[in-house]
């Protein structure tokens, strides 16, 4: 690739950050007003009925348990499969276990199309139904498609606007980075997170609307409104918020912490050395095997579940949806036992807001550990442990006074693979008295440092990206 081509497709990150920050300040748009957005979403729910029903595994069409391995796979060999995984690690408390896991090796596209209207960047957001969504339709990226879907394995209609992300002559690339998915439920899964800017005409479609980043941020503070894939892409957007007009001192400090010259407790090189050392010093051994070799799990006509009643189950669903490429289908879904909790702790250090980040290993992680929120867990999995055991800082997260909570929103996990999977996302201001000295798997980082890492693959896990998008929305 020539230098001229590279320059044309990779605009200045600082200039892009300022343009998206300006878009974030525009909370109303003449293109689509907030009232029109709300009315459009309500109409989408009315005019696109959907139905999701639990069915026995025997009623799955095109899916079957392989007689030799017990793995649940599609007859085409595409989409994904549910397999057995045996895991061993010496990270943190260490241990070994086996579990079902989704194996989906193909890379999908999660892409948001941007366009400037009257000097303000707008994002083309889609109202999309996913079978696992607790409320049916949520706002998703412009394009959200697995490779199997966008090459037409399902036999459905083509993916709208896909050409803007696959034909490089149609748009300028702003973000293009591979990012991981849930390591507890996916085996080394990754998707291509993209934002591209177009200047020409874009065809209209009733399931899509142009919104400013400020309008999207408003909806980020509504339960189960912005889906997981959109949050992942939004977290990768470059942003340098204006420091003026802050609602309070905490917001002013948060905005200043995104600045390119913001001071940090640990230099960037130290952060990278810390993370690299953890990956090099510890091991995460993953052995794929048949689902029929997984211990502690059982299968009946309707589900695959753990004997303890913890963790998650695998179920089968029959789906009917009006606004999808295929109007009806069946598929497996992973269903967690209860709602999860994630929290970032924040505190000022040297006048700059810092986040407490946790290096975390999960069963399906690609590279031993990725960065996670301060706290990430499902309470039922640790309910029988004595006080003081289980995830660090979980008690502080669950008992945080309301005055310290800056963000508290219920968000859905990816509805294409997970059924009614929700997480309570918290940002907790623990204050300047919270210890600077933290366990070796934790580190204090600024928003600017996290933004820098999000330009690269496999540093921040999906839960950290999702919660960081929430932090961006209140900056």
TrEMBL record:
<protein>
    <submittedName>
        <fullName>NDP-hexose 2,3-dehydratase</fullName>
    </submittedName>
</protein>
<dbReference type="GO" id="GO:0016829">
    <property type="term" value="F:lyase activity"/>
</dbReference>
<dbReference type="InterPro" id="IPR038153">
    <property type="entry name" value="EvaA-like_sf"/>
</dbReference>
<dbReference type="InterPro" id="IPR005212">
    <property type="entry name" value="EvaA-like"/>
</dbReference>
<dbReference type="Pfam" id="PF03559">
    <property type="entry name" value="Hexose_dehydrat"/>
</dbReference>
<feature type="domain" description="dTDP-4-dehydro-6-deoxy-alpha-D-glucopyranose 2,3-dehydratase">
    <location>
        <begin position="35"/>
        <end position="237"/>
    </location>
</feature>
<feature type="domain" description="dTDP-4-dehydro-6-deoxy-alpha-D-glucopyranose 2,3-dehydratase">
    <location>
        <begin position="270"/>
        <end position="471"/>
    </location>
</feature>
């Amino acid at each position: 690739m020539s230098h001229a081509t590279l320059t044309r497709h990779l605009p200045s990150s600082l200039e892009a950050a300022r343009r998206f920050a300006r878009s974030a300040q525009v909370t109303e748009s003449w293109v689509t007003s907030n009232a029109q957005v709300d009315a459009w979403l309500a109409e989408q729910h009315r005019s696109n009925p959907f139905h999701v029903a639990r069915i026995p595994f025997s009623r799955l069409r095109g899916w079957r348990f392989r007689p030799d391995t017990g793995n649940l796979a599609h007859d085409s060999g595409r989409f994904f499969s549910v397999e057995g995984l045996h895991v061993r690690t010496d990270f943190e408390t260490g241990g070994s276990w086996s579990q079902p896991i989704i194996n989906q090796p193909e890379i999908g596209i999660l892409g948001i199309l941007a366009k400037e209207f009257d000097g303000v960047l707008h994002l083309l957001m889609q109202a999309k139904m996913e079978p696992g969504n607790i409320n049916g339709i949520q706002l998703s990226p412009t394009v959200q498609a697995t490779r199997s879907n966008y090459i037409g394995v399902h036999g459905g209609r083509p993916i709208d606007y896909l050409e803007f992300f696959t034909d490089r002559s149609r748009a300028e690339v702003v973000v293009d980075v591979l990012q991981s998915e849930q390591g507890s439920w996916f085996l080394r899964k990754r998707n291509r997170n993209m934002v591209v800017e177009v200047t020409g005409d874009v065809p209209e479609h009733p399931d899509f609307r142009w919104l400013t980043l400020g309008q999207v941020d408003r909806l980020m503070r509504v339960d189960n409104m912005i889906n997981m894939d959109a949050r992942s892409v939004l977290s990768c957007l470059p942003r340098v918020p204006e420091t003026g007009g802050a609602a309070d001192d905490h917001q002013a400090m948060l905005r200043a912490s995104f600045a390119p010259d913001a001071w940090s407790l640990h230099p960037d090189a130290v952060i990278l050395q810390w993370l690299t050392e953890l990956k090099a010093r510890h091991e995460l051994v993953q052995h794929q095997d048949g689902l029929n070799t997984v211990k502690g799990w059982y299968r009946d006509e309707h589900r695959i579940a753990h004997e303890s009643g913890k963790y998650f189950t695998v179920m089968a669903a029959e789906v009917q949806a009006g606004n999808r490429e295929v109007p009806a289908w069946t598929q497996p879904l992973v269903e967690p036992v209860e709602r999860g909790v994630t929290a970032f702790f924040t505190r000022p250090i040297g006048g700059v807001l810092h986040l407490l980040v946790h290096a975390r290993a999960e069963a399906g992680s690609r590279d031993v550990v990725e960065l996670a929120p301060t706290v990430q867990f499902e309470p039922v999995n640790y309910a029988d442990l004595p006080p003081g055991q289980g995830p660090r800082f979980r008690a502080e997260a669950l008992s945080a006074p309301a005055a310290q909570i800056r963000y508290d929103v219920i968000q859905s996990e990816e509805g294409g693979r997970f059924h009614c999977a929700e997480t309570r996302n918290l940002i907790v201001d623990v204050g300047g008295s919270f210890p600077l000295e933290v366990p070796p798997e934790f580190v204090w980082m600024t928003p600017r440092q996290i933004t820098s890492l999000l330009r690269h693959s496999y540093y921040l896990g999906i839960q950290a990206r999702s919660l960081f998008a929430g932090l961006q929305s209140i900056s």
